[in-house]
Design brief:
The chain has 202 residues and is mainly β. The chain has one helix spanning 92-98, and strands at residues 27-32, 38-47, 50-59, 62-69, 77-83, 87-88, 111-123, 128-137, 140-151, 162-172, 185-186, 190-201. The protein starts with 26 loop residues before the first strand and ends with a strand. The model is unreliable at 1-23 (pLDDT under 50).
Length: 202
Amino acid sequence: MSAVPIRSMDTLSAQDRPHLHDATNIHTIYRIDPAASRVEFTIGKRLIFVTHLLVTGRFSDIRGTISLDEQEPAKSRAEVTIGAASVDTRMGKRDKHLRTADFFDVERYPNLTFTSRRIETIDRARGHYRVVGDLTVRGVTREVQHDATTYIPAARDGSGRRIKLTLTGALNRREFGMVWNNPLLTIPDDLTVRLQIEATAA
């Protein structure tokens, strides 16, 4: 996981903290900024006479919300929706294939969704957590987990309070019904996923 600057919520001054709260805990709803966020994936492939190649792609259509519990971050929640048709590997023919029923089947399943179920604290002072939740791809839902690093800068330019997150994890495409392969183009089952998210307090 790449390092990002960390500022613990415990160090924020009163004026920096948001003001949505219930009787016991402070909660803030952050909306994901699609222009500043991205979802990336990397998967290998093996060609005849070529040992190994890596393919990196991204989804540009990402939206959702993060409900941040300021006092107990492990009680926070996140809901993310990704437009499957926005997949982009910088090769038009390959992207068109990825949108077919062999892979994402975007006509039947236009969105990928993730809903967090629990957040495990690894190192609160450094903003390190493990996010566990339900990922739905092609109508199939599996529990997945991602390592997360958070960065919560204080807003000083009038643009609104923002939160930044980096999440990384691994997925197996066969678990979501993507079993297509080619004897001349062997695609591994496992891929790595990286989400870089920026969100603004609603």
